[in-house]
Amino acid sequence: MKRISDQSFERELEKRLQELSSTEGLYPPLSAEVRNKYLRKAN
Amino acid sequence: MRTMQPNDIELLKSEQQSDAGTLARIYEEYSPAVFRYAFRLLGSLQIAEDCVADSFLGFLTAVEMGKGPQENLKAYLFRSAHNWIVDFYRKKSRLDIDLDDDFIDSFVNVEFEAENRIRVIETIKALDQLTIEQKEVVLLRYSEGLDNKEIAKVIHKTQGAVKALLHRATTSLQKELKYETNK
């Protein structure tokens, strides 16, 4: 067990979730098909 | 973490909202975050893409009809995705199940330092122990930077309910990640 304050744990959680979001290659890219469908409709 | 910027508010209020360039910018700005959110909650690339496509096409339809978002574009888009996901689980009767296999599989091929890899896998597994609702509020709060008021709008609950969900979720995550907080 690692001892930590509630506030520090919130910061740790935020850091961990930011790592998930920012890790390059972790998520497959959203397909161009979705983007193209949206842009066709937007035009 | 990105918060609502003044130009987003201007976008919502201006006549440019239906301009093709502006609509394209909205997609580029928000679709990656909505996709991450959907992917983590749905655990499938294909299903998450369907969610993003329907959410953004629905947004365009609303704008065309003059019923687009008036006050918070980011919360509006996440709410559309939330509604889609709730509907998906309702139809499939698949509440609180683990669908993160694609997510873990995609990670296997990522070049990444071993220590960071362990941390990321730990985080994913801890998130997996949460209910869908708990996972959703944690992602919206700590990954996408929405405040409790915005989250309440996204998931159609009161701010008190959001606070309670977050409390239960963080308590569970502390345990899963082996942290002990000083009370």
Could you characterize the architecture of this molecule?
The complex is a heterodimer of chains A (43) and B (183). With 43 residues, chain A is mainly alpha-helical. Helices cover 65% and strands 7% of the residues of chain A. Chain A starts with a strand and ends with a helix. The mean pLDDT of chain A is 86. Chain B has a single domain, classed as Butyryl-CoA Dehydrogenase, subunit A, domain 3 (Up-down Bundle), CATH 1.20.140.160. Chain B is 72% helix and 2% strand. In chain B, helix 3 crosses helix 4. The longest helix of chain B has 23 residues, at 20-42. The A-B interface holds A 1-6, 9-10, 12-14, 16-21, 23-28, 30-31, 33-35, 37-39, 41-43 and B 1, 20, 23-24, 27, 31-33, 35-36, 39-40, 45, 49, 52-53, 56-57, 60, 106-107, 109-112, 116, 119-120, 123-124, 138-139, 142-143, 170, 173-174, 177-182. Strand 1 of chain A pairs parallel with strand 1 of chain B.
Work out the radius of gyration of chain A: 18 Å
- Helical amount of chain B: over 70%
What is the rounded Rg of chain B? 17 Å
Q: Tell me the quaternary state.
A: heterodimer
Distance between the termini of chain A: 55 Å
Spell the H/E element sequence of chain B: HHHHHHHHHE
Count of spatially separate domains of chain B: 1
In CATH, the architecture of chain B is Up-down Bundle
What is the tally of helical segments of chain B?
9
Number of strands of chain A: 1
Give the low-confidence spans of chain B. Answer: none
Main CATH class of chain B: Mainly Alpha
Strand content of chain B: under 5%
Reading the helices and strands of chain A in chain order gives EHH
Number of helices of chain A: 2
* Overall geometry of chain A: elongated
Beta percentage of chain A is 5-15%
- The helix content of chain A, as a percent range, equals 55-70%
